[in-house]
Each structure stands twice: as C-alpha cells, then as structure tokens.
User: Fold this.
Amino acid sequence: INNLAALYRSQGRYAEAEPLLKQALLLRQELLGDRHPDVASSLNNLAGLYYSQRRYAEAEPLLKQALLLRQELLGDCHPDVATSLNNLALLYSSQGRYEEAEIKAQEALAIRLSVLGEKHPDTLNSLLSVKGLRVQNLLQCDQQTLFAILEALAPQANLPTLDTEAMLYLLEDIATNPELLQILKQAMLQQTQVI
Assistant:
C-alpha cells in the first residue's frame, strides 16, 4: 500500500495517495500496535504527503508524533530519529521558521555525526542543511532563492560544479563574510523592489 501511495505522490496524485497512506497507518496500528517503528514510518509518510501539498498544519503534528515515537522506541541517537528531526527542519524552513529549522537540523547533524561519521552522505546532507538554514536565516530567504544565489556565486568563486562540497564552501563564506552578506542582502532588496 505504501509503495502505491508513494507512486501516486510522486505523480502528484495526492487525492489517491492520501486514503492509501491512512489505510497503511491504520493497518500497522491494528497489526503492530500504536508503539512500533513502522507506525512512526507511516506517520512520517502521511506527513510527507501533507508537506507536498503545503498542508503544513496537518503535517507538523504527525512529524512530531513520529519523532517522539522513534525517540522512545529507538533511542535519541538513532538514524531514524535524525531523519525525523530533519523532516521537521524542512517543514519549519518551508514556513519561514528558519531558527527553529536550524535547531532541528543541528540536532539531526549531531546524531548523524556520532552514529554515521563525518564522511557519510547523510551526515554531509545534514551539514549542508545546517549551513543552508543558517544562511537562510541571515538572509531571510527561502531555499529556492538561496540556491539561485549559490548558482550565481559558484562561477565567481571558480567552482566548476555546484556539488555538495562547493555548496558547503559557499555557505560558509556567506555566513562568515559580513561584506558578502551585506551585498547579498542589498541585491535581494533591490530585486524585490524591481518586482
């Protein structure tokens, strides 16, 4: 059921995905009980659907419930707990709640560093999230705007591709260079005045 719902979600067929995800959640609760990691996964899947539809008020309590369940069942330092924290960070970021998002992303990063190590792809993605959210908070911009800024800065910094390493470099430069930060703020202000 979850796989079919995921397919529908990827196709934008949200109205067809939602009842399947709700049914999967109910089945897991009936078969496994309310306190099972698979129930947390189903809560997370349903929240992901709501997130895709920008139904943030419905997604948030499900994400929080999945996080609490995973913490209780798996412990505070489990990769699935980091995933739940990261999902909350994404939700908060989408709502412009950058400070809250950065805190959750930092918590996810700490778990991934301790459990997976600093070279693991999930850890690098968490590091990218933390640095990105820090800059989003400084610039008060959304993720799409930040990515456009990074794309514009990459050639100026002689970075041939905008891979994870290049983005980490640029984000660190923006966060620690007050002059660059001010230039970007002014450019964003001018762009909004033109529109």
Q: What stands out?
A: The CA atoms of residues 102 and 133 lie 5 Å apart. The two ends are 45 Å apart (CA to CA).
